[in-house]
């Protein structure tokens, strides 16, 4: 836990304790009032404000909730609170996930530790662990030690050195996913539980999987309640067959899918845990989430002679070197095979008395794919080093050479493929470079005992690539001057050649000469397989570690699959995505990318916790497949479970009575069940409840679930409700992971917080404020503890100000001052801007507009009012509006203000969104203008009269400026008028935006302006574009009205009304406002500067004497040359 050192910042907790008191009182009231328990309107009733049903993926119950959970959860909580405040019926339910292997793996791991390290002669004794024990390296299982942002170990190399992208041309990159980050610091399970705060005497109870289900869900409910989440706990549940109602629901769902033909049994490749003896899906993994089976062709290069150590295999079978590749078309250009000299290889027994030379890791994979006599147990006939294999003559399928030789390659990675690579130097920069290096360096050949004849092979062209010819590798290596295997440019060269070869290459050899590689690639692959020259092979795209701690392989498994990717079903799901709000283009693109590659999904498992496949009970429904439409279950859970988390109450509905006919009636508009033991009225209420709340309006989730859970949810909704697209999800809001103080969360470094710890340390409201401030995009957000700390101070100081303001003797009467009107308008701006931000789930913006900006407006109002003081009615309105706008984020404090300070009835949570007239754009602009003028004048006054002196000399004191004359121009003229006219023409009223090339269009249009005709383009840009860009910025802020040739407000009137404000703010004795057309502006010393005045930037003339005190000349007239300061400024610029 990230805590402050003793004594640091902990001198007083009075402010925090004050907020905790309000928090406790508010939550007690909400619970007593059953504020969050909400039902659909009764038959015949309506609710005009509408409904909002939001949900959050149920967290996995193998640990405590942490700030990473709280961040994603806060998105739903803020949205729900906003819609509740607006008067809608809001349903926010929450269940808990227990399906799958993680809990079982943790329990089994603890059981092993207890058996190994506890004294069997002392029942109840604690384990004694040795200091250096390999088991300690097993991955952590409890989520509280592995927060979402913790980076896990991943494979050192990409999916394959010569991999053609699944989506050619794309360069999709992403950060490590959340589940991929769950490996954490290696610890024993006992230590993990102990460090979670579980008493040592209780830890042994966790050897039973069922204990996890009883222990963590109630704590999660406690912590979510403490956070202030408005959850209807009547509808909570856990998954697995422990909860017979939910078990019935999942079985019904799968029977529907089976009936639709969307579940089938087959033998397919799947990522597989040898230890668990079943497929390992994303949620079953400690690391490697998102990794799928990667299919290769294994070329069978026959050993023509068995020399050296291989001679020991003579007579035992035909020996093949198996080379893994994705590019079957390059078999035509093979001139050698490569091995890593120090690599560990083996000779393994294959089928039909064949012997395979390959790495040990790939042999294990292959043994799970029906390619070896015994599944999972490759028979190693001989262990070999790569050096033992160098020089072996091979016969390569489709190569023009009768024999090629095994040569050394120093860049082979033994954790990918078989460790044996075929050499095609025409189209592989690696192969071309390595072969040339061997040819050119006798000492290198000598080092690895390579004979000259083995490398004397000419490059064989395979394909012609536009721009690279028929030997692309040679062309690129020569152009880039790549000479050695260690050249860092090789990787980029390889990517270019492989991608270009796939997309643009044309075969120049073989039966398919003249045809594009992309057209014949699969044909050649099929031929190689049929003629026995190659076999299929798969392995994980990257390293996958199961939660049981073993490294996974790819196995050919016989099990049940969902037909994701099937043409019609995929089309329906793409339609659902099209009509769904994703809140960002980035999220939509990730969904589209996922739907593009997602294919059949193994939906059954042999071990773990969960629901049995109803028609094949030897299998369990895997953990991602029982979590796709459970949002519908929320709508009726309270009828069935009556608030009991485990469905173990004594309600009127028994689990066995909830038949498929009942589910069909409730969810699918099926006929009324015959002979059902559930009362007809209850069945009707259940159906009404579902139809009222569905579809759900929002699913808030981390972005890492797009590639599995969220896309699966879309698929299953379009299947179950294929004929009712109005039931498909309305929106999904995805966020990034959460950093803590700019760093990834890690319990091992102390940079970590559970939800319970954060609420206790900062209070729920200050924590929620920091969560809102953390960020709203899909990039990683940052929870800053200092923001939470300052949140406590901000909230309590605001409460103190409320007390002072509500008890003070404030100005009454008409709201007449300019400052009054501006502040009133600022409140209206906050109301409308905050509503827009909340509605689009931009909570950081909502916090800014509804709290920070509004408080700044209050402070500016207080200053502007000066000795007259603030208006009582506006102060009260401010406090009320501020309280309402902050309620979704800080509900406890706001409820306290509402009831105890404003003396309002009921709770602020349902008080209604405040009404406010539309903001007056002209008044906004006038207020900004006045403040800008004050700032500019202050700078000008500060500079006035100061003279430059030589170094070391003291400047004489400047005379004090006591008077200012402001000369106002009422309209833009000349080229500025043309800029505004052109911008007005280019502004799109529908999209409320300028075109993306507005700058280019403006330059082109302004070239035709006569007054600018002599300027070069660069000079024109420098003169025109700053003004144009300023006006575009103002347009985006205030609207297209600012593009008028006159300001949207009366500039002179604003200045005259605020003469006293200007004098007080600038410490002037007088200010005079003139129009440029007035007689006073025609004086010679002013007239020659009037051209610099423009709307919004008056000409300013400063004086050190008051007009009536100015000295008289001998003829009795004022001498402006003597008494009026010769400094005239346009805005803040000297002229």
What's the arrangement of secondary structure elements?
Blueprint: H1 14-32, E1 51-55, H2 67-85, E2 89-91, H3 102-117, H4 189-195, H5 200-203, H6 209-227, H7 244-259, E3 263-273, E4 278-279, E5 285-287, E6 293-303, E7 318-325, E8 336-339, E9 344-349, E10 354-359, H8 360-367, E11 380-385, H9 386-389, E12 393-395, E13 404-408, E14 420-423, H10 429-440, H11 442-447, H12 452-455, E15 463-464, H13 472-479, H14 489-504, E16 506-507, H15 517-530, E17 534-540, E18 545-546, E19 553-562, H16 567-579, H17 585-597, E20 601-602, E21 604-605, E22 620-621, H18 630-634, H19 637-641, H20 660-668, H21 680-693, E23 698-702, H22 706-720, E24 732-735, E25 738-740, H23 755-762, H24 764-773, E26 781-783, H25 785-807, H26 818-839, H27 843-865, H28 872-886, H29 891-901, H30 921-943, E27 963-968, H31 974-986, H32 998-1006, H33 1017-1038, H34 1051-1057, H35 1059-1066, E28 1070-1075, H36 1084-1087, E29 1099-1103, H37 1120-1123, E30 1124-1130, E31 1133-1134
Helix pairs in contact: 1-25, 1-29, 10-13, 13-14, 16-17, 16-22, 17-22, 20-21, 23-24, 24-25, 26-27, 26-28, 27-28, 28-29, 31-32, 31-33, 32-33
């Amino acid at each position: 836990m990230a805590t402050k050192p003793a004594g640091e910042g902990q001198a007083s907790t009075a402010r925090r304790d004050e907020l905790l008191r309000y928090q406790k009182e508010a939550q007690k009231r909400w619970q007593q009032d059953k504020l969050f328990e909400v039902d659909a309107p009764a038959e015949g009733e309506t609710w005009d404000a509408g409904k909002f049903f939001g949900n959050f993926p149920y967290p996995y119950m193998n640990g405590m909730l942490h700030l990473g959970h709280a961040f994603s959860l806060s998105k739903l909580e803020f949205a729900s609170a906003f819609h509740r405040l607006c008067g809608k019926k809001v349903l926010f339910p929450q269940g808990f996930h227990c399906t799958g292997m993680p809990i079982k793996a943790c329990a089994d791991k603890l059981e092993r530790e207890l058996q190994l390290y506890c004294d069997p002669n002392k029942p109840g004794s604690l384990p004694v662990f040795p200091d250096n024990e390999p088991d300690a390296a097993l991955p952590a299982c409890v989520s509280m030690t592995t927060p979402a942002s913790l980076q896990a170990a991943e494979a050192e190399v990409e999916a394959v050195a010569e991999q053609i992208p699944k989506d050619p041309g794309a360069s999709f990159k992403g950060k490590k996913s959340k589940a991929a980050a769950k490996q954490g610091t290696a610890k024993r399970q006992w230590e993990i539980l102990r460090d979670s705060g579980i008493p040592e005497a209780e830890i042994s109870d966790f050897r039973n999987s069922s204990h996890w289900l009883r222990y963590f869900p109630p704590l999660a409910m406690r912590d979510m309640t403490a956070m202030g989440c408005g959850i209807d706990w009547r509808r909570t549940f856990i998954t697995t067959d422990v909860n017979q109602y939910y078990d019935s629901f999942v079985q019904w769902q799968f029977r529907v899918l089976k009936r639709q033909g969307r579940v089938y049994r087959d033998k397919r490749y799947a990522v597989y845990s040898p230890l668990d003896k079943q497929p390992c899906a994303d949620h079953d993994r400690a690391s490697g989430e998102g990794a799928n089976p990667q299919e290769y062709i294994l070329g069978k290069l026959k050993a023509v002679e068995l020399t050296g150590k291989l001679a020991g295999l003579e007579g035992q079978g035909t020996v093949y070197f198996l080379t893994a590749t994705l590019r079957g078309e390059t078999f035509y250009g093979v001139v050698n095979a490569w091995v890593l000299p120090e690599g560990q290889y083996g000779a393994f027994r294959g089928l039909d008395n064949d012997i395979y030379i390959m790495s040990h890791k790939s042999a294990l994979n292959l043994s799970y794919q029906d390619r070896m006599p015994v599944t999972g147990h490759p028979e190693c006939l001989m262990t070999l080093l790569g050096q033992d294999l160098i020089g072996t003559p091979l016969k390569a399928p489709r190569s023009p050479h009768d024999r090629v030789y095994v040569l050394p390659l120093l860049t082979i990675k033994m954790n990918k493929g078989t460790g044996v690579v075929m050499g095609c130097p025409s189209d592989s920069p690696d192969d071309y470079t390595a072969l040339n290096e061997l040819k050119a360096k006798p000492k290198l050949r000598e080092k690895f005992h390579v004979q000259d004849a083995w490398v004397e092979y000419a490059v064989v062209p395979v394909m012609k690539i536009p721009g690279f010819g028929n030997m692309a590798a040679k062309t690129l290596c020569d152009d880039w001057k790549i000479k050695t295997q260690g050249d860092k440019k090789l990787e980029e060269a390889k990517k270019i050649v492989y991608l270009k070869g796939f997309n643009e290459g044309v075969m120049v050899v073989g039966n398919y000469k003249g045809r594009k590689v992309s057209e014949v690639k699969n044909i050649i692959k099929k031929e190689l397989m049929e003629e026995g020259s190659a076999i299929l092979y798969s392995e994980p795209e990257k390293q996958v570690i199961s939660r049981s701690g073993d490294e996974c392989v790819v196995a050919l498994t016989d099990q049940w699959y969902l037909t994701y990717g099937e043409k019609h079903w995929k089309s329906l799901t793409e339609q659902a995505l099209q009509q769904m709000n994703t809140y960002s283009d980035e999220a939509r693109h990730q969904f589209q990318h996922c739907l593009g590659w997602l294919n059949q999904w193994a939906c059954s498992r042999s071990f773990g916790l969960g629901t049995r496949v109803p028609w094949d009970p030897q299998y369990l429904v895997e953990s991602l497949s029982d979590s796709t439409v459970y949002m519908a279950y929320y709508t009726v859970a309270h009828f069935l479970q009556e608030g009991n988390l485990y469905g173990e109450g004594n309600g009127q509905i028994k689990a066995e009575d909830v038949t498929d006919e009942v589910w069909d009636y409730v969810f699918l508009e099926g006929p009324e069940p015959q002979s059902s033991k559930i009362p007809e009225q209850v069945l009707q209420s259940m159906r009404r409840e579902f139809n009222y709340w569905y579809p759900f309006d929002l699913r808030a989730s981390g972005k890492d679930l797009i590639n599995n859970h969220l896309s699966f949810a879309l698929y299953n909704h379009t299947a179950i409700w294929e004929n009712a697209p109005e039931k498909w999800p309305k929106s999904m809001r995805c966020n990034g992971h959460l950093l803590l103080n700019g760093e990834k969360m890690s319990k091992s470094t102390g940079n970590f917080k559970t939800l319970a710890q954060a609420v206790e340390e900062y209070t729920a409201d200050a924590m929620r404020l920091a969560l809102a401030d953390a960020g709203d995009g899909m990039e990683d957000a940052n929870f800053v503890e200092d923001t939470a700390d300052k949140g406590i101070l901000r909230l309590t100081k605001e409460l103190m100000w409320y007390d002072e303001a509500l008890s003070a003797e404030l100005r009454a009467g008409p709201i007449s001052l300019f400052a009054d009107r501006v502040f009133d308008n600022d409140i209206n701006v906050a109301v409308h801007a905050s509503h827009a931000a909340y509605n689009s789930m931009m909570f950081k913006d909502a916090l800014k507009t509804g709290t920070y900006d509004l408080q700044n407006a209050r402070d500016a109002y207080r200053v502007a009012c000066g000795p007259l003081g603030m208006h009582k009615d506006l102060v009260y309105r401010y406090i009320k509006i501020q309280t309402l706008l902050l309620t979704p984020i800080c509900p406890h404090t706001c409820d306290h203000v509402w009831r105890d300070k404003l003396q309002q009835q009921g709770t602020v949570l349902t008080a209604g969104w405040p009404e406010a007239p539309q903001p007056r754009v002209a008044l906004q602009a006038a207020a900004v203008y006045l403040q800008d003028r004050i700032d500019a004048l202050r700078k000008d006054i500060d500079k006035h009269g100061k003279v430059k002196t030589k170094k070391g000399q003291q400047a004489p004191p400047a005379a004090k400026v006591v008077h200012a004359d402001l000369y106002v121009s009422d309209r833009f003229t000349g080229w500025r008028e043309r800029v505004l006219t052109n911008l007005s023409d280019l502004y799109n009223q529908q999209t409320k935006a300028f075109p993306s090339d507005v700058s280019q269009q403006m330059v082109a249009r302004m070239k035709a302006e006569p007054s600018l005709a002599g300027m070069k383009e660069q000079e024109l840009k420098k003169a025109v574009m700053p003004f144009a860009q300023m006006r575009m910025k103002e347009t985006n802020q205030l609207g297209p009205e600012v593009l008028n040739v006159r300001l949207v407000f009366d500039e002179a009137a604003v200045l005259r009304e605020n003469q006293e404000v200007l004098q007080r703010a600038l410490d002037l004795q007088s200010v005079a406002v003139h129009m440029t057309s007035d007689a006073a502006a025609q004086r010679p010393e002013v007239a020659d500067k009037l051209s610099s005045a423009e709307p919004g930037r008056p000409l300013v003339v400063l004086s050190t004497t008051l007009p009536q005190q100015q000295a008289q000349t001998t003829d009795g007239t004022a001498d402006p040359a003597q008494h009026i300061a010769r400094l005239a400024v346009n805005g803040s610029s000297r002229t």
